[in-house]
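worker-03 picked up job from queue 'complexes'. Input manifest follows; two sequence lines, order preserved.
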Amino acid sequence: MTDISQSGPVLAADGTPLKRSLARALRMQKLRALMLIAPLLLFILVTFILPVADMLFRSVENRIVQDTLPQTVEALADWDPASGQLPEEAVFAAMAADLQIAARAKTHTKVAKRLNYENPGVSSVFRKSGRKVSKWDLAADGPFREKLIEIDDGWGDVELWRTIKTYSGSVTSGYFLNAVDMQLGAEGPEIRPENERIYNTMLIRTMRMSLIITFSCILLGYPVAWILANLPARKANLLLILVLLPFWTSLLVRTSAWKILLQQQGVINDTLVWIGLVDDANRLVLINNELGTIIAMTHILLPFMILPMYSVMQTINPSYLRAAKSLGATDWTAFWRVYFPQTVPGIGAGSILVFILAVGYYITPALVGGTKGTFISNLIAYHISTSGNWGLGAALGAILLAVVLLLYWVYDKVVGIDNVKLG
Amino acid sequence: MKLSKLSALAMTTALCAPSAFAEEMANELTLVSWGGAYQTSQHKAYVEPYLAANPDVKVVWDESSAEAVAKIRAMNEAGNVTWDLVDVVASDSMRLCDEGLAEEINHDEDLAAAPDGTAASEDFGDLIVSDCFVPQIVYSTTFGYRTDLIDQPDSVCAIFDTEKYPGKRSLQKRPIDNMEWALYCDGVAKDEIYDVLGTDEGVAQALAKLDTIKDQVVWWTAGAETPQLLADGEVVMGSTFNGRLFSAIAEQGQPIGMLWDMQSFDLDGWVVPAGLPADRKARVMDFLKFATDTQRLADQAAYISYGPARASSAPLVGKHAELGIEMAPHMPTDPANAGNVHVYDYEWWADNRDDLDAKFQAWLAK
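worker-03 finished. Artifact:
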């Protein structure tokens, strides 16, 4: 070491210092690796990461009020909603001016829709006023307070002005608060009235039922995986095809099949009545409730549990069990102390797969879940495709994403993510 | 999404005399509808005769009307609107118009007048619920019941009478209509329903009424569910669109009866997405004018039991194209069926939909 440091840096064959030469070679290697995955990276960036980021951004974005009603927002700055008094004439004049521009550009109904989420009724106030206000002569037609209230007495409601003031910022916590059953009241965030609370219930239900589904998959999948792993290869392959078969059938077909089986006039109930186990007047309710969702989703997600468990079990040397038994262990001890711990990585991988897939499911719960067996994803889908409240849908999605990441982190702390094997 | 391409090449006709601006029109037309028997009726009544007269045009159907609002919004934001004409329910047309996602229509200029010269806006009358909306049909959400399993009900309130009419019922999974029926059957006068529903107590009253049958209800989201549930005997009565019940009764011969009392009228019609290029828009407007004239709307009724939206079409309604039965008695607008109807208030629901949806969903989840 000493004579190296005395004779300066080590040189490579071409005379450059070895350290720099090595760094360059490594850099080239990394660059080449990056180039190889660049198409995939770009594809994921464009089709997945950017859209998700855009969607998440919508959960707080609220520029529409400021952009459409700039003068009103400015004029409202000095108004104190707590006073219980209507804003001054200047605010009404600003509103008339904003409304005129907005109505001509047909954006007044857009902002109305945004405000209607927070204060039902705003939508028609704006829609009714827009056309009339666009014909006004702003310089001569004042004062506007009476004129606006004459068009729709909604303008005489302090709540409407409070809503505009509260939601005039360019970002809003409104959607996120709504997504956790809260709202922005006169004195900051408050819990929604009891008859409007739903999202927390749904989130907890989604988590609880996904856990139940994961555990049923473990219970049903473990013996199957064990049989698969211990049969001769040819028989195992045949059985494996049976496990994979549902994968090649459409999700909708499988779910609809469960509908035919489980409904009250369905195959299972008919059979039970025919055998005499169940009275015809009291047929079992197996569908349109939690049970229906759990049965159908356990069936649909089962292969995701069996495959990782099977591939882990295949790698376990059978001589360990024989060794345990030859050393005097009972069958149970040999299984529980020797075999089972070695399969835990497979169970872990299967559980993560099944749980994360289950949390995001919405087609199956929508078809067989009735009202008690639907998931939070059903509400997200509803807000994205039916109600059009994308902000709320995005906030719910963001919360779901955060909860899943949190659970993943907890799982990593408890079980350890290194302890997960897909084979 | 299923796309069915229909080539007009097979159709030959010498009738067509291309007008001066025909060359500026695009030759492909993407129509969006609901699929099933309804889309077929539109194809037979509007599209086939139009293609016969315009053999160069190609029509593509897309069955996405159920997600129309979300998809048009997404297309609009992406700046690439691929649809030309979209079939939506009236409330969706209001929403699209409010958001500037649909073109405003000048009904008198853009649409054909009635044969007697009545202007289109007068012919459609009150059914033009939004400036962007061209009504096609009047349909109703009403009840069907199993004639062999329960006695014939004569009032909509039978759905709340589980003693006289035992068995499950199917209702649409949304507050619209159900809240109104609940209040009506709880003794609220018909013209006061929306005043009552506008208060917190009114909402509580409606939900309390629905609570009495909550464990007997199967909630549906697709119109085909109730006829299936009725056919399977899963429910003894249920609400759905009247055309679906007609096809179950008349075309499939199921033991199902119609309960028209307090049927809820609704409208379905066309909207033109905003921001179409000039050549495509010209083609759409040409088709729209043709497809919504008096004869075309009357023709549609030969394939499905929905009432034509033009007053002038009603006398022209004839027989079912295949079954040969008179269609008029099966129309929701027929005087015998329309004795006691519920007219759903679009304006009120546009204001209160989000709020009541939240309360309704919360109630369902409980």
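worker-03 released lock.
Residues 346-365 of chain B form the longest helix (20 residues).
Chain B is about 35% helix and 20% strand.
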